[in-house]
Amino acid sequence: MLTASISAKAEGRRQVALERHQIREEQLQQDRQLRELRLEHLRWRRERRQGAYLELLTNMSTADRANQQYFRELLAAPQSVPTDEARLEGIRGLFKAAEHTTYKVVLEGPASVAEMAQELIAQLGVLVSAVRDYARAHASSTSDVVVHRSIVESAGQSFLAAQSMFLGTARTALDEVVDATRDERQT
Fold it and tell me: How many helices (H) and strands (E) does the chain have?
């Protein structure tokens, strides 16, 4: 009887230990599944952000190239060439497309990238306006064409600086997502 009692207690402890082990295994499995779900979400967020950033840069580049091309043509043209309002309107449309993409970047975040995107679109807006003002001054043969040219060149440099800042901030934000993914895997 004593042996049966000891045996029953030992069996009960084994059963409890087995149940605890199964519970721990189930918890570990749930933790692994949750970690995988988090990793998948982080990858998805990174891809969405990267797509928004690339779309913004593409649209900005398209608007900037059209703006630069018009400015170069004006520099090569004799003064008093009429302002090509249709072309300016086309450049403005490209700017608006880039501005619209900025909203996507703002929504995707993070805040540091959103702030840099807004600064970048503001600088592009200044540059587009400066080229428009140069074109109008060039068409009217005013003496302040040199001043307007200097303003365009300065605005161009500011745009390039803002673009560089945006790229650095965006790269850091994307790297943070990769780092978070790496950290999540190690836990």
Answer: 4, 0
